[in-house]
Amino acid sequence: MDMKIKNKQRQAGVLLHISSLPLGVLGQNAYQFVDFLSEVGAKVWQTLPLNMPHADNSPYQCLSAYAGNPAFISMQKLAEKNLLSVTDLTTYVSNQSPELKQKLIEKIFIALTKQPESQQYLAFKKFCRKHVSWLNDFALFLVLRKQFQDASWNKWPVVYKKRDTKALNQIKKLYKDEIDVIKFTQFLFFQQWAELKKYANQNGIAMFGDIPIFVAYDSADVWANPESFKLDKRCNMKVVAGVPPDYFSATGQRWGNPHYNWRAMKADGYKWWLARMSTQNSLFDMVRIDHFRGFQAAWEIPASEDTAINGKWQLAPGEALLEAIKKHFPKMCLVAEDLGIITDEVNALREKFKMPGMKILQFAFGGGDDNYYLPANIEANSVVYTGTHDNDTTLGWYNTLEAHAKQHLHAILADDAPNMPFDLVRLALSTKSRLAIIPMQDILELDSKSRMNTPGTVENNWIWRFKWSQLTVELKHQFAQVVQQSGRAQVKNQHA
Questions:
Q1: Which pLDDT tens digit goes with each residue over 272-307?
Q2: Is 221 a catalytic residue?
Q3: pLDDT tens across 247-258, in order?
Q4: Nearest to 136, CA basis, from 216, 55, 67, 51
């Protein structure tokens, strides 16, 4: 489970979610972004989870751990394959509503069903067979959710909540066409992603994905696999996930995700997890596990509690699970999101599997010399960031940095008037970390208005998009130059 970045050359990459591209789809802008990465010598594109979110658009609370976000499907790419007429594309470009997109995809599917021997239709049928372990349940879940006005599945009539076979078979017959369109929509997403990944890999760019350790309660995963989660006889959560009180929050964080029933998962050889990782392994060259410490132990809060205060640590079978993943996917490259208060046991688990951890420079300054985020303390088997999707942009962070932390940063930079955020980008790239990832906002030198997410809030998150006009020739050259000077520039013609 070593990093794929096994050669001694240190590498650079950029963090940018698909939703943050101009238009936010897997179209021409995504390919142009690959070209940009190649031009500046970067070798990695890191995204956030690609799954289908709830109404709040958080990629960390999704309707499925497998299904892709239909919002990312490029209608332009469908038109280029002659699946969508110029007239329909023009109509969509002037409207761009999710409802119209879905109607047009439905129209494409109906046309394809009349050509059952066509290459595209045969590829769709093959996709359905390959993803049968989750696709049927997901499509059925979406149909039922729509019937019950998007209510969480635990509020559905009991025959659907408890998955009564006769009731579900009736729905499958009644809504067969709708179920097929949902499957076809997923096929289009996976097809477009595979084409983008192929283009990226051909240009020496590795795709770096991200999975939340926990899944949303209101998801096809929990509905279809209730035995794999800690639920009561009524399918309600007995306990929920979160983190205990710390210096960030006196009451801790109550995330509300269900906990895994590890005993049941162990009994079937971690089948659900292996299926999940199989999908991720096909989508990405590298995968970050969000809240990795939950593989060792997770904070378990009684579902009746309003805060995280009265929780307890519940051990998890991380070693056995990672051994199973390693056995099935020996070349899979995993990165541990090991931020926060990490114990010796968590570090030992990560180190046993040689998984790189994360180092965030925004956490480095204002403390003692033993701070393991300080550039001098960063080891090679790690991924260094100026900040992540949960942090402010580096410019926003610097503008509000406390005086003593700012002085500490200035002392390390040996400059009392640094060029921010560029000097922190340069500092990240100069570390021993084998991989340095820079958020696109920092390359574009943007302030807090371009922040991706503010943890603990539910509004104005996940909506930032960049414009190509913001990426000036000077900014592109500046980043390319520092990638080159730090010894991280991509060797041309060397594929990921």
A1: 999 999 999 999 999 999 999 999 999 999 999 999
A2: no
A3: 667 888 899 999
A4: 67
Q: Which two tokens stand for residue 328?
A: 């099935």
To which H or E segment does residue 18 belong? none
Given 88, 221, 337, 392, the catalytic residue: 337
CA angle 112, 116, 118 (to 5 degrees): 75
Looking at residue 84, its pLDDT comes to 95
Cα–Cα distance measured from residue 219 to residue 231, given in angstroms and rounded to the nearest whole number? 14
290 as an active site residue: the answer is yes
**Residue 338 annotated as catalytic:** no
**Residue 1 burial by Cβ neighbours in a 10 Å radius (0-12, 13-18, 19+):** middle
Catalytic residue among 290, 305, 323, 447: 290
Is the peptide bond preceding residue 421 cis, with omega within 30 degrees of 0? yes
Place of tokens 């998984």: 355
The identity of residue 334, as a single letter, is L
Residue 117's SS3 state is coil
**pLDDT the model gives residue 340:** 81
Give, in order, the Cα–Cα distances in Å from 255 to each of 225, 252, 312, 398: 20, 10, 14, 29
If you ran DSSP here, which 8-state letter would residue 239 be given?
A: E
Nearest to 220 by CA among 153, 150, 130: 153
Chain centre to alpha carbon of residue 180: 26
Rounded Cα distance, 398 and 419, in Å? 11
How far apart are the C-alpha atoms of 92 and 86, rounded to whole Å? 10
- 376, with CB counted inside 10 A (0-12, 13-18, 19+), is exposed
Q: Which residues contact 402 (CB under 8 A, 6 or more apart)?
A: 366
pLDDT in tens, 373-424: 999 999 999 999 999 999 999 999 999 999 999 999 999 999 999 999 999 9
Please name which of 186, 204, 179 lies closest in space to residue 124, comparing C-alpha atoms.
186
> DSSP secondary-structure letter at 469?
G
Q: Which residues of 408-444 are buried (b: 16+ CB within 10 A; e: fewer)?
A: bbeebbeeeebebbbbbbbbbbbbebbbbbbbbbbbb
For residues 200 and 120, the answer to whether their CB atoms sit within 8 Å is no
Residue 358 parent element (H or E): strand 357-360
Structural contact between residues 337 and 391, judged by C-beta atoms closer than 8 angstroms: no
The CA distance from 154 to 120, in Å, is 37
| Cα–Cα dist 289/110, whole Å | 39
Cβ neighbours for 354, distance < 8 A, ≥ 6 positions apart: 1, 2, 3, 381
Q: Is the per-residue pLDDT at 342 higher than 50? A: yes
How many other C-beta atoms are found inside a 10 Å radius of the C-beta of residue 304? 10
Q: CA-CA distance, 22 to 399, in Å (whole number)? A: 27
CA distance 31 to 46: 14
